Amino acid sequence: MTNGYMGxxxxxxxxxxxxxxxLALQCVPACARxxxxxxxxYNTGARxxxxxxxxxxxxxxxxxxxxxxxxxxxxxxxxxxxxxALGLLRELGPVITALLFAGRAGTALxxxxxxxxxxxxxxxxxxxxxxxxxxxxxxxxxxxxxxxxLLTAIFxxxxxxxxxxxxxxxxxxxxxxxxSQTQDAVELRDVREGLTKSLVFGIACALVAVYxxxxxxxxxAGVGLATTRTVxxxxxxxxxxxxxxxxxxx
Length: 250
Known about the structure:
The structure is a single chain. By secondary structure, the chain is mainly alpha-helical. The chain has helices at about 1-30, 35-45, 50-70, 80-120, 120-125, 130-170, 175-185, 190-215, 220-250. The chain has one domain (about 35-250). Helix content is about 85%, strand content about 0%.
């Protein structure tokens, strides 16, 4: 039984790697149709903006409350801005944004492509000598890769505003100390780490979503199963890659 699961996992890993290679070859020709990519950035990015901003605000506010309570015990309340900024830029921003993206936009991509497979739209394109990877999968893949870093930046900015709202407006921390400590502590490597994570997470989420939708069973149950696999695989992959990238930077 264990060998069977392991063999299936290796087979799916190999199939995903082959699919990624085929998809990467179609990304350059797909760039010749920027309107398709812009439309996918809107579908995956702009339509996820509300949940990203709300989540960023409340995560920042919780971070401000918990951080203030912890730092107050050591008499270091003024460094709340530093703790919030580093936590959001390096860890919370990329990870939570990617998880939210996988749950909202990733499942939408999978179900959309899976429905096209179930209704034989992809097969019809192949019959007409139109490559579905170029006109369906590649624009969605590129749009998701571009959208995730942008959403991560918005999440971090709104989260820092939420932490400032709690620390300065509610807890009475001096605003000058809050922002000056933040500016002095945040370095380029911190921004680079968050940007690297968001880009890698975007590639992982987009690849899983497009692969599962493109290779789903052409039935309603198959599309539902592919959507479930997208959320599970993306979440596990995000946490695994987060550890790997964090270890590499440290």
